[in-house]
Amino acid sequence: MLNTRIHSSYIVVTESDYSNRTSNILKLRLNSSQIEPKGLHRKLVSTTFSTTYNLEMATQYVEELICSARKLYDTEEYLAARALYTQLLALYPFDARMWHHRSNTHLKLRYPELAFTDAARGLQLLDDTLAKKTLSRDDQNDAVLLRLDVLYTCLLTAEALNSFQMALQYIDRLLANVHLLSSETRKVVLEKQATLRDKISQRISTLRGANVPLGVSIDTISNLGTMNVVKYPWDVSEPFTATNDLDAELKELNSAFEPFAPKLKIVLMPDNPALYTPERTSSIFFSKAGRPQLGIIARKKIKPKERILDETGIFVNNGLYGPKCNYCNSVLSISASNSNEMHKTTCSGCGERFCSVDCLHSALETYHKVLCGRDISHILTYVAKGTSCSSLIHLVVLRLLAIAVQSKQHPLEMTIVKYLARSAKEVVPWDVYQSYFFYLDVLKVLGLCPYSDIDKFDFWIYYTLRNKLIPNVFGEYKAPMKPANGKLLLFTSFLNHSCVPNAVYITDRHAHQVVVARKEGIEKNQQVFISYIDPDRPSIERQQLFETTYGFVCRCERCVRELGTNDEEEIRQKTAPSSN
Ligand SMILES: C[S@@+](CC[C@H](N)C(=O)[O-])C[C@H]1O[C@@H](n2cnc3c(N)ncnc32)[C@H](O)[C@@H]1O
User: Fold this and answer.
1) Is residue 137 exposed (0-12), middle (13-18) or buried (19+ Cβ within 10 Å)?
2) Domain SET: where (predicted)?
3) ipTM value for the complex
4) Which of 514, 474, 513 is nearest to 497 (CA)?
5) What SS3 class is residue 488?
6) Ligand 1 pocket: which of 284, 492, 497 to mutate (most atoms within 8 A of CB)
7) What is the pTM of this model?
């Protein structure tokens, strides 16, 4: 915590904050079960709320919760402290102090991305409150000091994310209030400033020598941070974890899969899913992302060119290449010859066009009621900026969250999300700041509040969703290297890649996709492979494409043969842009 000159023990209370708090407490009185903490403080809640609910008791209860959270933090029980701060945020969504506390807890838990997004929300609340100039002098002083604490936490998060430029910007903001910093703090901040400047020049000189990916400037890269791809311990939605009954879960998944692909079966894979043979199923590998690899095998012999999987998925397009159906990406004729037909396939609310009445109805049933008439031009700018199909993930995120809002489901519990594997990489280069702004923009389009909708739409949920989409969203480029169409299909996403595939996918109308065996057919128990990319490219190019888009190292039989190794790290080194 920042060592400010004046000791600060305060709560920022504004009038609107107070009325919010009062109304939240009144809500509590009506439904105490809603805020009952899971396990931890059950006793406290039941003793407080089983008696008469009155304002003082509720306030006292909340103060006790704050105290308990602080104690848990002090005794390094950070997960429990986080759970409690999250519950407190549900009660006090506009209290900057609470966001700051949770931010520090996330920092201790080594989730700097979450620490940053919490601190950023706290900072915004304080900036808004201070801009209104309605605080008493004392409250104003307290808010100014809290703001410095929060800025300091932002600096720590930027350091932990290796976002050196951003860390420097926070230092500038702290130094703008240098008169409020103690001499000790000032010294620490100035030392950090010097170290960060050194790190930036080191990073830039390393990058100048390296082969920087096309379309990315050194300045952008030098501000990129690194992020861990993790499963957050409080994420209980994910199946196939070490503690679950894997066989029972696979059985359930396969019974959902069977109607779409009666001749196929989803199975657990060994370490390298691309070299699966039936004998090796026993050596199941739990990836660092916390879930074993899955894949699809044939239950019976499959004839050449036989259709083996037929499912509907999520299709998105960025509209850059002429009008397309919003539901299935089919190209729309510029002016429909039959105006009656056009009328039937156009949304009466916003004028969005679809290729058929079926597509319009499917869109309305699943997501379009939420997105109807919403301006998504800002979201499209994120997609257009991308130099690979991965940027289409932005549109898939928007679509999935719209489905969650419309169907009132938790985004991570929706079937199409829940079963997806997360990115295979452990650490990814990532611009957390841009992602945070994107997250805020998406919430705005969906009409959600970044403070009060955190039970279903907190930043960690968005981040988990994004990590699950990286290896599973397939996209199409259009020249000159612009992402055009994207899609996510639940069952097809269990198909592993091979540079010598035995199946191909064909996109049909109305968001259908069919997987068909190639001309050789597929033997019983053989794994079914598709190719995620053009397999005619040379092996180095193929690997580089995987690395920058889906984020994995291909270890299929052809790559292993051509590169002479099955080892992920060796392949990475042999095919890295700078090594050739
Ligand atoms: C679309 S998913 C395929 C299904 C995935 N195995 C699962 O468990 O859900 C893509 C992921 O599968 C793994 N994978 C697929 N093909 C692979 C290959 N040829 N070599 C290595 N890993 C592969 C990678 O982890 C990749 O990120």
Assistant:
1) exposed
2) 279-533
3) 0.99
4) 474
5) strand
6) 497
7) 0.87
Contact 407, 567 (CB under 8 A): no
Query: What are 200-250's pLDDT values in tens digits?
Result: 888 777 766 665 554 455 555 556 778 777 889 999 888 988 888 889 999
**Lookup: tokens for 70:** 């602080």
420: which DSSP letter? P
- In the chain, where the domains are located: 15-209, 314-485
Are 60 and 68 in contact, with CB atoms under 8 Å apart? no
Q: Closest Cα partner for 426 from 291, 571, 288? A: 288
Ligand 1 binding pocket, CB closer than 6 Å: 272-274, 293-295, 421, 424, 471-472, 493-494, 496-498, 550, 552, 554-556
- Residue 346 pairs with which residues in a beta bridge? 353
Residues 6+ apart with CB under 8 A from 360: 327, 344, 345, 346, 347, 354, 368
Instruction: Express each pLDDT in 27-85 by its tens digit.
Output: 433 333 333 333 333 333 333 344 444 566 667 888 888 999 999 999 999 999 999 99
Please give the distance of CA 95 from its chain centroid, rounded to a whole number: 25
**528: DSSP letter:** P
CATH code, residues 15-209:
1.25.40.10
Query: CA 573 to CA 580: how far, in whole Å?
Result: 10
